[in-house]
Design goal:
This protein is of the alpha+beta class and 658 residues long. It contains 14 helices and 28 strands. Strands 1, 2, 3, 4, 11 and 12 form a six-stranded mixed sheet that branches. Strands 18-13-14-15-19-23 form a six-stranded mixed sheet.
Length: 658
């Protein structure tokens, strides 16, 4: 079995890291690159994945899917999906149950090349197969176990879709981990021994991640044994791609004026110009004063060359609205945690888009702290996932370190009307509030006389994108009837938000309250030693149980838990008579033992002729008449002797009590 691995599932690139015994290593792909393009290209019977798809994108752009992560688990009715459908070079359409289908030209075996519909889960599964093969090539053995990162703003449907894609690809996903939590784990675990103890105030760190398509931010509290994500915020429509779009629109407007052509009518031309825009953006990030950089693309459209330039001041001015939006997630996490800026000790930035000084300067001016970049911006998430995979794998021994994440959306329950109400720890609708701890579970109590339905949904639609469905799932609780007394039954329903951030109804149980049956009375203790009287052995009965002589004084029963009082002996001859009586008893017992050679424990003696003959033969032919005489004599001795547990020697037992 190979080593577990972590996957940073990005929008533009994917990064794979492996947990080995020597540490965490980011591995390269077949093109010796540590970043694998998030692309899947189909052509004829061939299927290009990652680097192979990117190398042919210019000639196969209408059949190459990029950034499938943006579409995974979403619905056709969402406004964002409708806008993407207008700009994508490949066809996007509505699928079954309101989902999304991607139409590509593909030639199946034994069939001609024609339009074939794929779900985003199928496209992502193709990419995961390639990434799994990359991990196995370095492990030299199968490596099915991994932890996959997802944005913290992914909803329940999107998370389930990623798990479905992993299952299709044969990847055993140990956990879906939020990008923010993976970054915090990679930063905090190596430093955990320097953090405060659990009893002291934790160390607060702000993590800011601006990737290609979105921005995420979280505040984390660190101690020696755990990390706790206090709050997370995001902007799903703010990333490096949106900065690129500003420059692309600037050049497209110039091209429209000069060449009288619409750049966006030709997907190949757009892709070629986007490549140049990304290079210019990186170059401008290295300048602090105004400068002008050229942009040249040969035969951009209709055999016409593109030549233009952009200044740094122009770039700063056109991106100012985006820079202002960069601070909104930071404001949200501080508002949610109610922490002050001076309570945050460090600010860590990751993500490819944070290389721009515009973003870093805005954070520094707002927080009053210099943002640090102690981790590789493009590899931090994958290393955090690999660390978590090692913690979950039985083949690795990792220092104990707890990971407590939080939800970004609040979840509420609805149920069919009926008799009784629901109790949810004092709340009626909302079960898991925003920033609720993950994983967590809650127990709900319903009073019902018949089955009912439970519906889970996001309680704050404004937290979702426009058009995104709010319903999470629907569950039916059946087999419920009235209680034994005819009233409503008590039903306990357990709901859970698991470590993947997925909501589920675990169990539903009917609880019946049954009064316990009274325990049987224990035998009364009558003797000093606590021995109970045996029903079939009157000779073993305690002395106190024997009938008292007439005229003897009766003692009151002792209080519960108290000690029994000793009986007062009568003065005078009564005490002397008791001593003489015991002395006679011992003498009679001695005589009985001398006349019998059998065991002291007689039990019930069988006096039938067959039994006597058998015993006679066993004793070597003892005369039966003599034996009978001995038995009569022993019985008379036993009847004459008073019952005393301390002197119940070898005499025969008396008759059983009535």
């Amino acid at each position: 079995m190979g080593f577990p691995w972590g996957l940073d599932l990005g929008s533009q690139n994917c990064v794979v890291a492996i947990a080995r015994k020597g540490g965490i290593d980011v591995i390269d792909n077949e093109a010796s690159s540590r970043k694998t393009p998030c692309m899947v290209g189909l052509g004829g019977r061939e299927r290009g994945l990652g680097e192979a798809a990117k190398s042919k994108i210019t000639s196969n752009i209408k059949n190459t899917v990029a950034d499938v992560k943006t579409l995974i688990g979403r619905k056709w009715s969402e406004t964002g999906v409708q806008q993407l459908a207008k700009t994508l070079p490949w066809e996007l359409k509505e699928g079954p149950n309101g989902g999304i289908l991607i139409s590509l030209m593909y030639e199946k075996e034994g069939d001609e090349c024609k339009k074939t519909d794929f779900t985003p889960e199928q496209i992502l599964a193709m990419l995961l197969v390639n990434l799994k093969q990359t991990a196995e090539n370095h492990n030299k053995s199968p490596s099915p176990d991994c932890v996959i990162s997802v944005p913290c703003f992914f909803n329940d449907s999107q998370r389930r879709a990623v798990l479905s894609a992993a299952e299709i690809a044969g990847v055993k996903c140990l956990r879906l981990m939020n990008d923010t939590a993976a970054t915090a784990l990679n930063w905090g675990l190596p430093k955990s021994m320097d953090f405060p103890d659990d009893t002291a105030a934790p160390k607060h760190v702000l993590f800011y991640d601006m990737g290609y398509t979105s921005t995420q931010c979280c505040l984390v509290a660190f101690t020696k044994t755990k990390m706790t994500v206090l709050a997370s915020a995001f902007d799903r429509e703010l990333g490096g791609r949106h900065f690129d779009r500003c420059m692309l629109d600037f050049f497209a407007e110039y091209w429209k004026t000069k060449a009288k052509l619409n750049l966006f009518d030709n997907p190949k031309s757009v892709f070629r110009l986007e490549t140049q825009v990304d290079k210019i953006k990186q170059q401008l990030s290295g300048y602090s004063s105004n400068t002008k950089l050229p942009c040249n693309v040969e035969c951009l459209q209709d055999d016409q060359d593109f030549h233009h330039s952009i200044e740094l001041d122009q770039w700063v001015e056109m991106t100012k609205p985006l820079v202002d939006r960069c601070l909104e997630p930071v404001k949200q996490v501080f508002a949610a945690t109610k922490l002050m800026f001076d309570q945050v000790e460090e600010v860590e930035v990751v993500g490819s888009a944070t290389r721009s000084p515009l973003v870093v300067n805005a954070l520094r001016d707002f927080l009053g702290k210099e943002p640090k970049r102690t981790m590789n911006s493009e590899e931090a998430v994958s290393k955090g996932c690999a660390l978590n995979a090692a913690m979950l794998s039985p083949n690795f021994k990792v220092r104990e370190f707890g990971i407590i994440d939080c939800t970004c959306y609040s979840v509420a329950l609805g149920w069919t009307p009926g008799a009784g109400e629901m109790e949810v720890e004092g709340k009626r609708d909302t079960v898991f509030g925003q920033y609720n701890v993950v994983p967590s579970a809650k127990l709900l109590t319903f009073m019902r006389t018949q089955g009912f339905d439970i519906t889970a949904a996001y309680s704050e639609p404004q937290e979702l994108t426009e058009g995104m469905p709010t319903e999470i799932g629907h569950w039916a609780v059946t087999g419920v009837g009235p209680a034994a007394d005819g009233g409503p039954s008590k039903i306990k329903v357990k709901v859970r938000m698991d470590a993947n951030g997925i909501f589920s109804v675990d169990t539903a149980q009917v609880v019946e309250e049954v009064e316990p049956e009274p325990a049987p009375e224990a035998p009364k203790e009558e003797d000093k030693g606590g021995d109970a009287a045996m029903p079939d052995a009157a000779a073993d009965a305690p002395a106190e149980a024997a009938p008292e002589p007439a005229g003897a004084e009766k003692e009151a029963a002792p209080a519960e838990g108290g000690e029994k009082k000793k009986k007062k002996k009568k003065e005078g001859s009564d005490g002397e008579d008791d001593g003489e009586e015991k002395k006679k008893k011992k003498e009679k017992k001695k005589k009985a033992e001398e006349s019998d050679s059998w065991d002291d424990d007689w039990g019930d003696v069988d006096t039938s002729e067959a039994a006597v003959a058998a015993r006679s033969a066993a004793l070597g032919g003892v005369d039966q008449d003599a034996l009978a005489a001995k038995m009569d004599k022993a019985a008379k001795v036993a009847d004459a002797a008073p019952a005393d547990d301390s002197d119940s020697g070898g005499g025969a037992p008396g008759p059983p009590p009535p």
